[in-house]
Each structure stands twice: as C-alpha cells, then as structure tokens.
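Technical note accompanying the year-one report. For the benefit of new consortium partners, we illustrate the data format agreed upon in the data management plan: each record pairs a sequence with a structure-token string. No post-processing was applied to the example shown here.
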Amino acid sequence: MERPRPSTIAWAGLAGAVAVYDLTCSPGETLSEGVDAGLETKYKRLIQLGIGLTALHLLNLCPSALDPLHQLTRLKAQRSDRQ
C-alpha cells in the first residue's frame, strides 16, 4: 500500500480536529456557529472574502498572481533559495 502524502495527512488532521472540537465544544460554539456569529459583525465582508478566497484557492479557480495562499508558498520558496 502506498504511503499517504503529507498533505493528505494534514487534511485528515484538520478534519479530525474540527470534528473533535465540534463534538466537545460548549453548546452554540461550533466552528460553523462561530462563522455565523462573525457574519453578524462589522467584519462580515472580510469573513466572506476569506471564505471565498479559500474556496477559489482550493478549487484552483483563482489566478496564481491574485491568490494570497499561492503567494505564501512563493515567499517560502524565495526564503529557501536565500539560505
């Protein structure tokens, strides 16, 4: 059997952490409910932008030049090249 990629392990860890948190948090404090509460604040547009950019990034629908998450990986590569 092929060994899972580190990114696959990371996604499984994220999903597991969300599940554990949502199962153990206080009533009304799930991550989804936290987003709902955030959408009722003055930061509504910022939260929507973050969700939208993340979705576009994950679906590979955001041009690399406009994708902030892609830019982070470019910065990481530039730092590695300097060392």
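Partners are asked to follow this layout when depositing records. The helical segments are 6-24, 31-38, 44-58, 68-82.
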